[in-house]
Design goal:
This protein is α+β, with helices and mostly antiparallel strands. It is built from 12 helices and 4 strands; from the N terminus they run βαββαβαααααααααα. A 4-stranded antiparallel sheet has the order 2-3-1-4, with helices on one face.
Length: 280
């Protein structure tokens, strides 16, 4: 079936989400995040877009973006290709890094703009990684909090709210904002503790290391990792295996042991906190 052409927003502002293929991590360490942001800066010089907000999570990224002289498809092809080539070379892997096509929605009203803005900047809070948006280093919240930014275009939102105090008060409010999102995304997952357990069991320092293992070895490790309390979703996202493969590996183990316990989603109990210090 041919793909449907994207609908252009009358406001020319979009909410865009990128995610790793099979929900695997697209950032293993801070160097990767710095490289991605540098890629955005370099691509912006060509595409001349305005980035109103962003947040880099472990396996997905949100943007509030206003295209310039190139359409969204060209902008994100440029960004994703550049970063994926660098990432694959660094981690000695091959193949796609991102889901084949980004998701996007048009932002047509000022009210929805402010909703999406708050949603993006509160992503780390709702994920349980930090207590407040300003504690997370890898978003543009600090650009709004400090009143300036070299990567984030903050003027539009500041003009909407009229004052810095009113804007920050709104961004900090507890809410039930609902925007474009993954329907099966579980905010409770804590990937850093899960990643430590995976390393302890497999001695693989990255997704790329794990993917170099023999397929049968990957499935055996998936069973051992699940037995340590990780969810199937975590295992898939943090190893690059598909959910179906993880499920079959665990189901096989369960059948062989005559176990009848239901496969349950689990959550870890700790999270990593980044020191705020860079104004994007």
């Amino acid at each position: 079936m041919p793909r449907t052409a994207r609908k252009a927003a009358g406001s020319n502002i979009y909410h865009v989400m990128l995610r790793g293929i099979n929900r695997q991590n697209i950032f293993e360490e801070d160097e990767d995040r710095f490289r991605f942001l540098d890629t955005i800066i370099r691509c912006r010089e060509v595409s001349e877009f305005r980035l109103h907000a962003f947040v880099l999570m472990s396996n997905h990224i949100h943007f509030l973006i206003e295209p310039g002289n190139e359409p969204l498809d060209v902008i994100f092809k440029r960004i994703c290709t550049s970063y994926a080539v660098w990432y694959n070379r660094k981690y000695q892997r091959a193949g796609h890094l991102f889901q084949d096509r980004f998701r996007s929605e048009s932002v047509e009203t000022d009210l929805y703009y402010t909703t999406v803005l708050r949603y993006i900047l509160q992503n780390p809070v709702k994920a349980g990684i930090v207590a407040r948006p300003g504690d997370y280093r890898w978003s543009s919240y600090l650009a709004y909090e400090k009143g300036r930014g070299t990567l984030t275009y903050t003027q539009f939102a500041r003009d909407l709210f009229g004052s810095q105090e009113t804007l920050l008060e709104y961004l900090a409010q507890e809410n039930d904002d609902s925007v474009m999102d993954e329907p099966d995304h579980d905010w409770r997952l804590r990937d850093d503790a899960a990643r430590e357990k995976i390393f302890k069991i497999t001695q693989c320092a990255s997704v790329s290391d794990f993917q170099k293992l023999d397929f049968e070895a990957q499935k055996e490790y998936a069973r051992k990792i699940y037995a340590e309390g990780l969810s199937m979703g975590q295992i898939a996202r943090l190893t690059g295996m598909s959910k179906a493969t993880v499920f079959r590996a665990i189901k096989k183990s369960d059948d062989e042991s005559d176990g009848k316990a239901e496969l349950l989603l689990r959550e870890s109990e700790t999270a990593t906190y980044y020191d705020a210090g860079v104004i994007w």
